[in-house]
């Protein structure tokens, strides 16, 4: 169980705990902080050997990350132990009712109410499965619940609504986890569940039902990656390993996209050509890094397909009352496929009868399951909280979508599409050539260990790259970092520039003459005010030399594809700087990999 939690710790690391069923009682230990604290406690006071148990690592929502708020939570009689992801929105009302009935709460969490409610149900004589169904019908919000009953040691029961849960099918053993990584060491056979389902596992079997008790079937699938993909493979951090996996990830995401007739084919598209021809507006919704991939997609789609594209933060989307019709294509980008903000946004779009296409890296996750079509990226599992290969493969999927739309709508000739595909096929080698110069970037990062603030400038497709570079630095180095569209500087942000301030500048390829020259002017303006300019520019671009305090050269690639190579040094820079500062790069403070709460 500890190994399973270790593989899931990237999803939350405010506290960790386990509860075991031992001879009619619940035995439990739980500790604030990282899993290592729990391991140490167990090493000092070992728990009994058993075959049924549950565990949890927490990203705190209700109540601070303390021992008492750590999961599992138990019922009043300690008959039930329960762990929970998500938020039970009506917990205050439920808690009030329980307290009036004399229940004393042992934590500040919303979770604990579910443990008491389950125990109440068990006292009426039903089994844990029925108890779970009955309790879930009375809960609002998003939740994955997993529970054990000390009086029924062979059974573990779980439920899900809007929060991830997968079943691992073994031989003489079965598993539950928020992600297959939890049990990949034991089995690669998995089962996904629908919303509002309860699953019961025993040593021998798995059974699924709706919250109303109606029997249901989960969908079985084989996981196409193994344990090695979930290990660091000699790197100090998952993030660094994942940065170096990018050439492979980009190549894998491009694989099999061209048919024998030379036409693009997107297997999991599921939207008909006619549906796509009717599209008159695209709205891309996403969060964080995925949002920046969406910004790049806007440049590509508008240029190649001449369809207007809006890019919207998923968390804001529903609240502005967006204008959606059945001819609007909503594209949801999410590495995890579980981001609650994005999920709620696509639900809103579908209620308004818009088509939803998702770009996702996680097979069987909720967002693709609730979309009309999906383009899967093939990055493999991304464990570092800071997204890297997830981002590059999202960019690839965005380019593929743009080219596919151009093919269907006839806005680009076949040979033009083939030419871009050929250029994309060369990108893994280009990304590799940037990685081959990682030592140059590391040296630069080491030179800036004392910096309090770093700015990032870009234009056009380089602007989202600047934003992504700044996000990486904020996330893992905890530095003030901001990305700007270079043309906006003079409208305010240039006031931030002072002697020695490092500014990372993403210089567009010379293919866009005007843009390139305008960027140069922006760089001169900040340099004239004392900034230290760290410039990323394509090989052979000598015009930048007089204005660059440091020049890192990028391979020559087309303007729209430049984000694929330009972001890589920024990832390396953040990773190395955070390492030098002594931070936990894979599990930065206050964050979690999948943000399954709104
Ligand atoms: C990226 O480094 C971040 N951890 C975060 O911004 C992330 O991209 C965002 O939460 C969206 O996640 P998703 O792609 O899984 O939906």
From TrEMBL:
EC number(s) from the headed UniProt entry: 2.6.1.16
Subcellular location: Cytoplasm
Key word Zinc-finger present: no
One Pfam family from the record: SIS
Domain SIS: 272-411, 444-588
Reactions it catalyzes: D-fructose 6-phosphate + L-glutamine = D-glucosamine 6-phosphate + L-glutamate
Catalytic residue list: 593
Record's keyword terms, sorted: Aminotransferase, Cytoplasm, Glutamine amidotransferase, Repeat, Transferase
Enzyme class: transferase
Stretches assigned to the Glutamine amidotransferase type-2 domain: 1-204
GO molecular function, one term: transaminase activity
InterPro entries: GATase_2_dom, GFAT, GFAT_N, GlmS/AgaS_SIS, GlmS/FrlB_SIS, Ntn_hydrolases_N, SIS_dom, SIS_dom_sf
Main location: cytoplasm
Physiological role: Catalyzes the first step in hexosamine metabolism, converting fructose-6P into glucosamine-6P using glutamine as a nitrogen source.
Subunit structure: Homodimer.
Protein's UniProt name: Glutamine--fructose-6-phosphate aminotransferase [isomerizing]
Gene designation per UniProt: glmS
């Amino acid at each position: 169980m500890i190994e399973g939690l270790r593989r899931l710790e990237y999803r939350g690391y405010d506290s960790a705990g386990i509860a075991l069923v031992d001879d009619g009682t619940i035995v439990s230990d739980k500790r604030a902080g990282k899993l290592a604290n729990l391991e140490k406690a167990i090493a000092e006071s070992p728990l009994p050997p058993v075959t049924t148990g549950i565990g949890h690592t927490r990203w705190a929502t209700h109540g601070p990350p303390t021992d008492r708020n750590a999961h599992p939570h138990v019922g009043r009689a300690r008959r039930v132990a329960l762990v929970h992801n998500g938020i039970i929105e009506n917990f205050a009302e439920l808690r009030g009712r329980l307290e009036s009935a004399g229940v004393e709460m042992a934590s500040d969490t919303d979770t604990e109410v579910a443990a008491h409610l389950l125990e109440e149900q068990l006292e009426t004589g039903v089994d844990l499965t029925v108890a779970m169904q009955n309790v879930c019908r009375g809960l609002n919000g998003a939740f994955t619940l997993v529970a054990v009953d000390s009086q029924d040691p062979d059974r573990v029961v779980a439920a899900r609504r809007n929060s991830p849960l997968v079943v691992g099918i073994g031989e003489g053993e079965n598993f539950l986890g928020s992600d297959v990584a939890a049990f990949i060491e034991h089995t690669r056979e998995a089962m996904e569940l629908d919303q509002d389902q309860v699953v019961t596992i025993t040593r021998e079997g798995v059974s699924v039902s709706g919250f109303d008790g109606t029997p249901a079937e989960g969908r079985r699938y084989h996981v196409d990656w193994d344990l090695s993909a979930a290990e660091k493979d000699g790197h100090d951090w998952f993030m660094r390993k994942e940065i170096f996996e990018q050439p492979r990830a980009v190549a894998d995401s491009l694989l099999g996209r061209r048919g024998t007739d030379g036409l693009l084919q997107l297997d999991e598209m599921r939207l008909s050509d006619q549906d796509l021809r009717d599209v008159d507006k695209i709205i891309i919704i996403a969060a964080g890094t995925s949002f920046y991939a969406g910004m790049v997609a806007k440049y590509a789609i508008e240029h190649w397909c001449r369809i207007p594209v809006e890019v919207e933060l998923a968390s804001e989307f529903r609240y502005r009352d967006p204008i959606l019709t059945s001819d609007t294509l909503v594209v949801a980008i999410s590495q995890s496929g579980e981001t609650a903000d994005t999920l709620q946004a696509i639900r809103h779009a579908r209620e308004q009868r818009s088509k939803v296409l998702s770009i996702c890296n996680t097979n069987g996750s909720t967002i693709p399951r609730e979309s009309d079509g999906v383009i899967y990226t093939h990055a493999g599992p991304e464990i570092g909280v800071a997204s890297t290969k997830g981002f590059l493969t999202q960019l690839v999927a965005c380019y593929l979508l743009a080219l596919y739309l151009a093919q269907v709508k006839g806005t680009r000739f076949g040979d033009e599409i083939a030419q871009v595909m050929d250029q994309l096929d060369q990108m893994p080698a280009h990304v590799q050539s940037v990685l081959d110069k990682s030592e140059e970037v590391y040296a630069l990062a080491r030179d800036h260990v004392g910096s309090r603030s770093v700015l990032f400038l870009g234009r056009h497709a380089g602007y989202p790259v600047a934003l992504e570079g700044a996000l990486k630095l904020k996330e893992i180095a905890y530095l003030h970092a901001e990305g700007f569209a270079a043309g906006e500087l003079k409208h305010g942000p240039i006031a931030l520039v002072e002697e020695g301030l490092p500014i990372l500048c993403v210089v567009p390829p010379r293919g866009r003459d005007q843009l390139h020259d305008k960027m140069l002017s922006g760089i001169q303006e900040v340099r004239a005010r004392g900034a230290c300019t760290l410039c990323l520019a394509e090989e052979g671009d000598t015009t930048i030399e007089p204005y660059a305090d440091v020049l890192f050269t990028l391979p020559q690639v087309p303007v729209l594809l430049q984000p694929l190579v330009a972001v890589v040094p920024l990832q390396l820079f953040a990773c190395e700087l955070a390492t030098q500062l002594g931070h936990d790069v894979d599990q930065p403070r206050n964050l979690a990999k999948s943000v399954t709460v709104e």
